[in-house]
Prior knowledge:
Distance between the termini: 132 Å
Mean pLDDT: 90
Radius of gyration: 40 Å
Number of helices: 31
Amino acid sequence: xxxxxxxxxxxxxxxxxxxxxxxxxxxxxxxxxxxxxxxxxxxxxxxxxxxxxxxxxxxxxxxxxxxxxxxxxxxxxxxxxxxxxxxxxxxxxxxxxxxxxxxxxxxxxxxxxxxxxxxxxxxxxxxxxxxxxxxxxxxxxxxxxxxxxxxxxxxxxxxxxxxxxxxxxxxxxxxxxxxxxxxxxxxxxxxxxxxxxxxxxxxxxxxxxxxxxxxxxxxxxxxxxxxxxxxxxxxxxxxxxxxxxxxxxxxxxxxxxxxxxxxxxxxxxxxxxxxxxxxxxxxxxxxxxxxxxxxxxxxxxxxxxxxxxxxxxxxxxxxxxxxxxxxxxxxxxxxxxxxxxxxxxxxxxxxxxxxxxxxxxxxxxxxxxxxxxxxxxxxxxxxxxxxxxxxxxxxxxxxxxxxxxxxxxxxxxxxxxxxxxxxxxxxxxxxxxxxxxxxxxxxxxxxxxxxxxxxxxxxxxxxxxxxxxxxxxxxxxxxxxxxxxxxxxxxxxxxxxxxxxxxxxxxxxxxxxxxxxxxxxxxxxxxxxxxxxxxxxxxxxxxxxx
Length: 546
């Protein structure tokens, strides 16, 4: 029989007759010299599935052997137009539920095959047709299978289906798909180490790739956070999404850091600090840039209470002082620090938090004037704490001056010393004057440091801070280990141009360079001074020896 003839009877014979002939073809007939033809039987089943009316397909489970009936329904579900596949699933569901509402295995098979193998566009059409019969629950069932771990679908598939459903007017189903996908992934992420599942990151990237400008995850999270029963699961899911900083997650971090309340932020940061510390720092920087002083006080308090975060309260407060992610705008001024401090007091913050805020504001010298630095230092109430803070500022300021050597940083040093003296904080001024001439280590770029110190001392004399200038120079020139004879002459050049009296300059040289223990270096310093024409200064060094 020709293939054409074979097609004819497949399309026209009653269903029981087709089932019998399929069985016969599969078995063969040795008496008639007809071998078994299992592949031909499968082709017949395919032709039957694609070309017979749907009613005939529904009759196949009653006529064909079970596996053949399943093959017919599978081929129809995958090969017919999506709308026809949906009608088949609906009618099969009705047929099975008439017998037993709790047993619909063939319908489940159709749904599984469609969800696992058809394209996103075809699947959207299948779901759209099924939702016309809501009592069947087939649309929801298809989404559950598609979003499940066993479907084998990629996250790009899921993102494609999400946008296709939305475009087809199935917003509810699209939202349900995203919820099922994220929840299922979140459950599997429990207990995984540090970075969370890669599939979560891939989903973020897929959504971002298909629609870079839409806030898909942010909108979903906004709704999910409204349900207190799902709050912990949602926070955990967001932590996993942020853990690997995937492509497209930057906007999610900005959304979370800028909109969540202090309770939820502490929860998610508490999860991130163990899984992905860098992601925790990123989120901390974003939340620290917020302008709501009440929120900033509340999160500092809540952060400090957290067993997993309390050790990093100091880092959070430092981020708040520098505006976190908006640090380019400069540190918070004293007025804002005062507002945060007032809110901390109102909400009963531990004294340690209040102290850390004042210290963090004082030691952050970037972007501040000397007057502002002195003012913030004076806000540190405890005398011992202020002394420690003043030393920290002195170390940072000295390091900055020696590394940059810019006119602005030298002027900042002088302005800070003057502001401290104007406020009666001479004790605090001791520390930068001590730290600047005592650089620690070779990486401080000692070459030429004495000249920088000479310039600063000259400026101190210019604003009538003679004692401060003298003390700075004295500590500098005593360091014969790194101050060279050329450095001595360079310093004298600056001092001769300054308002420092000659007698004071000679006393300084006599008390410092004149007492160097190494005779050769001392003689070299005298020679360098004479070569520059500074005979009176050279004599001051020599006279100190007698």
